[in-house]
Amino acid sequence: xxxxNYETSSIIAAERSGTSDPSEAQGPTTKSKRTSEFAxxxxxxxxxxxxxxxxxxxxxxxxxxVFAPLxxxxxxxxxxxxxxxxxxSSEHIMGTxxxxxxxxxxxxxxxxxxxxxxLISVLIGVSIGVPIxxxxxxxxxxxxxLTQRFIDIMIAFPGILLAIVVVTVxxxxxxxxxxxxxxxxxxxxxxxxxxxxLAIKEQSYVAAxxxxxxxxxxxIFRQILPNCLAPIIVQSTFQIATSILWAAGLGFLGLxxxxxxPEWGAILSNGRAYIRTAHHLTTFPGLAILFxxxxxxxxxxxxxxxxxxxxx
Amino acid sequence: MSTGLSxxxxxxxxxxxxxxFPIRTGVLSRVIGHVKAVDGVSFDIRSGETFxxxxxxxxxxxxxxxxxxxxxxxxxxxxxxxGEDVLAASGDRMRRLRKSMQIVFQDPYSxxxxxxxxGAAIREILQVHGxxxxxxxxxxxxELLVRCGLESYHSxxxxxxxxxxxxxxVVIARALALDPQFIVADEPISALDVSIQSQIINxxxxxxxxxxxxxxxxxxxxxVVRHMADRxxxxxxxxxxEVADKDEFYRExxxxxxxxxxxxxxxxxxxVKKQRIxxxxxxxxxxxxxxxxxxxxxxxYVMDVCRSVVPELKPTPSGHYAACHLxxxxx
Lengths: 312, 331
Known about the structure:
The structure holds two protein chains of two kinds.
Chain A: H1 2-18, H2 29-47, H3 49-66, H4 68-71, H5 103-139, H6 141-156, H7 159-170, H8 174-200, H9 204-211, H10 216-224, H11 229-252, H12 264-271, H13 280-307
Chain B: E1 10-25, E2 30-46, E3 50-54, H1 61-68, E4 76-81, E5 84-85, H2 91-100, E6 101-104, H3 118-128, H4 134-147, H5 164-176, E7 182-186, H6 194-211, E8 214-219, H7 222-228, E9 231-236, E10 239-245, H8 246-251, H9 256-263, E11 314-315, E12 321-322
Parallel strand pairs in B: 3-8, 3-9, 6-7, 7-8
Antiparallel strand pairs in B: 1-2, 1-4, 4-5, 9-10, 10-12, 11-12
């Protein structure tokens, strides 16, 4: 009892010192302010109920992927032709596919691949598309015209076709599908960011930064790009979904994850043939993709608000 | 042409400054013409004075200010700050020049990055120029904010948490961060509430007295200019049409355009009967300015010579500059 009392009072004391107004803080505040700003974003995100739901959904998928070996009830690759196209039962939670493999186990392992494809392809798209768009929009002139005509050419092809081209060049495989879907999303980011940059670079604060003698790199990364965050985040949450579907399409064409590798898109497209007799083969992967996309969308929305000082 | 009327030292010399914006069209962005935003402007600004540029919207006064700071490139002409060629300066020399020349913008809502606390924005400038780092920079930021009538804790606030007047104070504090001697004030109060305007004007005046600042004060509000300026330059269609000491200018404007502008100032005494000069028509397009005197299409005293010969900006014996054939009839 004694120790417990002591503990609570020390916690209160810690809280008091922690919530002190920044204006009271003295001395080298630059560094501590930066970390507290990061914490501020996190705190705001957790206050947003929708974002928390999104985090839980994504967390669930991540946990399911990480612990797939522990959670799976069967070997995802073992076929049992005598037991094909069975509906959900206590033995097979999500039923079996056209080769008698346990769908639940395949979904768990497939989540690993799909989650990776979604995240890594967006990472590739953002890390190449955003700089291209930013440089093109910021410097303008001939460079801009050249870049944009090139982006026009890329956009003229449907994303999936672009991905097919990349896979054809690089070869078949899950890794190359990530690269392919990432590359296919570059023009989307480049165009999006260029548009935002064009608007933002005309703002007086950018002129003020020039007048203060700040360099181009600093102006792009500190003044302009932070103000383009909202559309980039929104686009990324959609792009994760699109990438998973593109990857599924590639798998369907035999260019993506190769049988028997479980991947949600591939499972979905294989199940398409049996939609009248065994709809669970399309329902479960469809729902999984839907919820994963929903989770990323909710988190993305929350992140956009949390990063914007105005809505904080 | 020389406007070197100053016995005192000119800190800024602008000679025949031109800024043309190309008009492009078609797929290949062919240039089909130019908007002559600033077309051969020359003036001096003496150390410690306030030189006001006045004129209607679109007459090129803001572009002049921005070109002086090289926020847009000049098409031609010469700008010398403290003897140094601004348009030719590069790299290190330009960085040094930037430290001594700063700008205050018209719209305080777009002049501050919404994603940065005002403290972070000013600290960044101090750090880039190696003036102060860490806690020292923060101290300097707070000092600047207090100097401009804010509180030190405001450095942790984001721009959207401020009112328009407070934002303008932040913009001024940021402009002062590098200890400049010369500030372009580009319509610094025209976006503010009337009740706030006088506060900002007073702040600018106090700062000028304390820090020995030189202002290029760009405005279309002739009452404010009368209060602020030491000398006045009037711009019309990208050209300076009149330059004079303030008292002289308000007592006896020489150019018909200046006379029309001054007649439009409201007078507080209702018993005073004023003769307003109402100009006919609109400002001609700066993409296709009229031949001869740019003002001849609207001038009430237009003569034949005005339609063909461009009047030069030349001084009267009293040192009052005007570009008008009426003032210099022997042309």
